[in-house]
Amino acid sequence: MYSNSDDIQAAGSDTRPPMLDRTDYESWSQRIRLYYKESQLYDEFERFKMLPGEIINEYYVRFHKLVNDMRNIRMTMPNIQLNSKFVNNMSPEWDKFVTIVKLNKGLKETNHEQLYAYLKQHEKHVAQDRLIIERITPPTNDSLAFVSSVQPYSQPSQSRLFQ
């Protein structure tokens, strides 16, 4: 008659999942680590955006490092997806230059290095725009306080216009 321990030993030898088999454990362990690394990089890619106050060079270096990490583990992504992520997640002061890039450069044919080189040329304009916005914007983050401090524009009445 068999005991429970005999059943467990018999079941463990033939029905063990292949990843737990001692001869295949190392290859499965590598696969699991690779899957974990891929999922981390996908998450980082999905959340990637330009940080407030970040200059384009810092943004590009962070993005390029992420793309290199993805390539190191043989993750592939279409060029258009990489380029779209690069230009669509820049801060708002870059919007007009991003629009020009999308219209003139095309996101399929170029790569993010070329997009960076083109956008880098306009960094002085963006810095000037940023300074102008900072001068205009009040120091408070309370938008209601800003609205209440602005004098309402009153349109002249029709009767005054024709007098």
Keyphrases for this structure?
disordered C terminus; 9 helices; mainly alpha; 163 residues
What's the order of the H and E elements?
HHHHHHHHH
Uncertain spans: 159-163
Q: Would you report the number of β strands?
A: 0
Oligomerization category of the chains in this entry: single chain
Proportion in helices: 55-70%
Rg for CA atoms: 29 Å
Overall structural class, as computed from helix and strand content, comes to mainly alpha
Give the overall shape: elongated
* Secondary structure tally, helices: 9
Largest sheet entry: none
Average predicted confidence as pLDDT: 79
Structure description:
- The chain is an all-alpha fold and 163 residues long.
- It has a domain of 87 residues.
- The chain has nine helices and no strands.
- α3 packs antiparallel against α6.
Task: Outline the fold blueprint.
Layout: H1 4-14, H2 25-47, H3 56-72, H4 79-88, H5 95-104, H6 112-120, H7 123-136, H8 143-149, H9 158-161
Helix pairs in contact: 3-6
What would you say about this model in short?
By secondary structure, this protein is an all-alpha fold.
